[in-house]
């Protein structure tokens, strides 16, 4: 793992100059291995993904930042592009739909729209296949050298995990259940977020 001596394992996520380091979360068993496996599945499916590694002990998932080469790029996630105000509970990132993201990509990508839309379909397909129920607005973003440049495009896929393996505990009843829904609806106005 590159720059292993620069990590700070007491934090859940640490950003190094050109790496993002995620540590195993206490409430989600095997999270780092889960993310490594899902990213490897995306790479094997032919998607372009950032370089990534799993530490020898499995406690750290390390990914090379894709917004730095050759110079630092602009980065806007979909929650910012659709103008969603933040809230303390994080509900804002679970609003809208994948259809909305498609419209944002088409609108902001300019000449890069066909390639970016194709990439988004591939990202969504992998997320559906691995049951990534946390593919929300902040997990999709646009990259650019300048806001009005013609190179605006969808950022590389990252932060993909199989969420359906983690139980959610109802604090009121103590009941444990598994979430079997997507983070967003497929189309605006849809009633449910069920997997197809």
* Residue-averaged pLDDT: 89
Strand content: 15-25%
Overall structural domain count: 2
Radius of gyration: 17 Å
Description of the structure:
The chain is α+β, with helices and mostly antiparallel strands and 196 residues long. The chain folds into 2 domains: 4-64; 74-178, no CATH class. Helices cover 24% and strands 16% of the residues. It contains 4 helices and 9 strands. The chain has helices at 31-44, 78-81, 98-109, 113-129, and strands at residues 13-15, 19-23, 52-54, 60-64, 74-77, 141-144, 153-154, 167-169, 176-178. The chain has a 4-stranded antiparallel beta sheet with strand order 1-2-4-3, covered by helices on one side. A 3-stranded antiparallel beta sheet has the order 5-6-7. Strands 8-9 form a two-stranded antiparallel sheet. Helix 3 runs antiparallel to helix 4 (113-129). The longest helix has 17 residues, at 113-129.
In short:
This protein is of the alpha+beta class. Helices cover 24% and strands 16% of the residues.
């Amino acid at each position: 793992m590159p720059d292993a001596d620069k990590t700070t394992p007491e934090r859940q996520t640490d950003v190094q100059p050109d790496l993002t380091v995620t540590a195993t979360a206490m409430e989600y068993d095997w999270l780092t291995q889960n993310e490594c496996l899902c990213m490897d599945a995306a790479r094997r499916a032919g998607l372009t993904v950032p370089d990534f590694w799993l530490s020898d002990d499995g406690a750290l998932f390390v990914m090379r930042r894709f917004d730095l080469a050759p110079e630092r790029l602009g980065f806007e996630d979909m929650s910012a592009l659709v103008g969603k105000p933040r809230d303390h509970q994080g509900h804002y990132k679970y609003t809208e739909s994948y259809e909305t993201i498609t419209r944002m990509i088409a609108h902001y990508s300019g000449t890069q729209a066909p390639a970016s839309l194709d990439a988004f379909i591939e990202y969504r397909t992998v997320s559906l296949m691995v049951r990534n129920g946390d593919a929300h607005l902040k997990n999709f973003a646009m990259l650019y050298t300048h806001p009005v440049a013609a190179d605006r495009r969808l950022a590389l896929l990252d932060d993909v995990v199989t969420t359906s393996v983690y139980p959610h505990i109802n604090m009121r009843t103590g009941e444990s259940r598994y979430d079997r829904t997507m983070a967003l609806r497929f189309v605006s106005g849809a009633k449910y977020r069920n997997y197809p």
